[in-house]
Amino acid sequence: MRRFRKLLFYLFILFTILVTGCSNELSNEEQNIEVRERSDYDPNKYRNLKEISNNEQVRQVRDILNDAKWEEKIVNMTRLADYRFTFHFKNPDIEAKPVIYELWISPDLDTVEVIRGQREYTQISEQNSEILYETLTGNKLSELEGRMGMGQNYEEALEHVYFFNRASDLEPEISSEDAKNEWIDRLKDLREQGIYLGSVF
């Protein structure tokens, strides 16, 4: 009986070494990252954005994700992810089901949140969010606010909107102040959904 237990112990050690070795070999294999973004025309669909094949950039993204503090929980977001990305081995002989990473830009436009495989959630630090976002999209997160229109200062933006409080034969049904407050509230709701007001000029 003792000899049998010893045999099982050695088999377990051998199995652990083999699994660890295979895992290390796979982790050293070169990978690409396929990035997709939410469509401007249909927010329920995604379109191909880019493929990252630079080994240094792939390693940088992997390191940021590995260093993040992941929580095992299901998070219900208010909108679909702004971006999705997956890792793929460059070696076609390696078959592995890719894990889908979903990325959201935070309402304050300074950090990103990521869900891995639907059951793991993390909020990336501000510094790493900037690096991760730029690597995946080619754009700077710190410049996103400016492109989204007046830094989301809605009261300032309203100064650039012409407001007509009556038509030729209709009495106004709402005051200028009430219209302003309602306009700001609606824009804030849209922002929570990932829809931003921007300038066309």
UniProtKB/TrEMBL annotation:
<feature type="domain" description="YhfM-like">
    <location>
        <begin position="44"/>
        <end position="138"/>
    </location>
</feature>
<dbReference type="Pfam" id="PF26353">
    <property type="entry name" value="YhfM"/>
</dbReference>
<dbReference type="InterPro" id="IPR058780">
    <property type="entry name" value="YhfM-like_dom"/>
</dbReference>
<protein>
    <recommendedName>
        <fullName>YhfM-like domain-containing protein</fullName>
    </recommendedName>
</protein>
